[in-house]
Amino acid sequence: MLRRLIGQREDVGNEQVQRIIGLIDRYCSLLRASYEDDLEANEPIYRIEAWAGGFRDSLNELEQSQHAAGWFSRRVTKQFEEEMDEAERADYQCHVYFYKNAIVRVFSVLDKLGYFLNELYGLRTERVKPRYSFFTVLRQMKEAAGLEELYQEMQKIKTEFKDPLNILRNKRNTEIHYVNVEMLDDIQQTRRHFTRANHVEDLQKNMNLLDQGCMMVYRTMATVFAYCTRLLEQQAAKKLPQRNPRRF
Question: What is the pTM of this model?
Fold first, then answer.
């Protein structure tokens, strides 16, 4: 959708995201193949499939926001807002909008994934913390039997992207709970340059941070659905009964 707004083809997107969606489709297909004649017995599987399928839209929305933020950032060349003409100022405002939107979506997708894993494997994270995040679920997985491989892979990704994710989390929290991110950036830049003009923050640096945050999400999602799909394929090969959703 957003690519159409900036005059680009909608069928050309992030290849990594498309591979993840392919894994999700495969996972959902295997779930459907496990349906039984008893509709009531299928109810847990319906829920798991619906949650998994919802990640298609979530990933597309994140990737397109990331893409749009980068596209508009490359159209901004001035260092001060006062130097911009009307068109460039509009491009800058569009960049800020999609940049903030993408940051919020990074953590939204992660938290949805945490909820999915909590339900899938019966981790009961809500007993530890009623309003939990993806990172709370990840800590809970450390103690769960049979999830050592998945936990180690996810923990490795988290550690690799720890620093950029912390910066993005602070920006997300500021955007949601306090004042606008760009307002703080303006204040910091103004003090740094001793001028009353509104200095534009380093957009390339901001995009590099966002890209790393998105990469963390993409790699984590790919890891989770590759793992879950592999388990279902193994179960299908052995023709094991699949009534317990925790085994998916």
Answer: 0.84
